[in-house]
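Quick one: examine this chain and its backbone structure tokens and tell me how the chain folds. Here goes:
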Amino acid sequence: MDYEAVIKDSDVIDGLSIRFLKFFGMWKAINDYRTRGKKNIIIKIHLLGSLMITIPYVVFQVQSFFTIQFDIQKITFISLHALPALQMCCRLLLFWFQLNRVCRLYDMIRNNFINIPEDMKDQMRDLYINTNRTLNLNCLVVFIWNIGIVLIFSISPRVPIDYIRYHTGSIAEVKTGRMKILSGWFPFPMDEYPYYEIIYVYEVFCLSWATTLVSVYFCLFYQVLMCLYVQFTVLGASLSNLKIDCPDFRQSKRHKNIIQNRNSNLYEELYECLQDHQKLLRYTDDLRKVYNPLVTVTFGIGILVLFMGALQILLGKTCDLSFLFQLFQIVSFQFIEVSLFCFGSSRIETVSTDLQFAIYSSDWYKADVKFRKAAQMLMVRTRKSSTLTAIVMYPVNLETLGAIAQFTYSAAALLSGMVN
């Protein structure tokens, strides 16, 4: 491997919290692969456990299309609960097959990933802490929101079994029978003992497993994304602090030598920044290769969930506040994930292009011709922004988020009008 093996706690950039990864064993899994080049038992349990849990559910749902009656509203409702499980499996498979690149990308969480002058380390430490505070808060919100989904769905199941087995149309019209957690169909008498109890426990376990892994792998991927933003930010601060503090003495030969030495040191610092920028570009290319399928799947599933949620509200016409709240939780979580990826990519796009202004803010006008030529070359290299892409070439930013929201509502409203 062409990167250092173990990432110690002391190597992590200041202010970044990795407690979620440690608690769920992902930190050990990453370091084990970096050390031995093999996937440890934790990753294998995640993948095999997910397949064992989801395969029976998927098989039963496919079988249900030949057993129970459907309309567009019922298909929408049943599919709404299945898509997050698909999202979980896609992330696990991506992590499994791209583990080598993901572990290499985790070099970006090191505090010595880019060169920082000694006199700027305290300033950069504060910059790391302030920037990572938002990252930690975002990961915490995702975990708390998912825990709330599990608790509310488990304590207050709102899916009528009679609706799944016998009815179509609005779910609010079905007032009879027992309630279950998810909208899946099973080839058993679901409302009878002990099948009802077994299905209830199975669905609680499925929901807990899926939401936990979705949160863990979201934080795993999102941390790397935002660490790239942090490193670009630190590089920009280093470039803007390339200053010549010596006064512009012209008379004394001694003072001219001082200025010449300072120019030489300034050029060396700029050259190090140039190397760091090239390093960041290489890691950005790797990150784009890994995250393109991740973002594509996340956006695709997120759009479907948002669309189905809007369609269910428009067609279902339910007044059940508990059901609407559960529906809101699912839809809002997908929206949060899509928003955070768009937000992170947009910030990287902005900070990578702001490097031009950072170079301009240096004392390039006081430096010699050699420094100016190197600074000009770096400004040309920073004209192209770094950002995530979906479907290989579609840029991911805040404009994408607005387009997704507009498309989701328009498509749902159009289909609802056609049905009515």
User: Anything to note?
Assistant: The beta strands are 159-160, 179-180, 389-390, 394-395. The two ends are 60 Å apart (CA to CA). The longest strand covers residues 159-160. The chain has a mean pLDDT of 86.
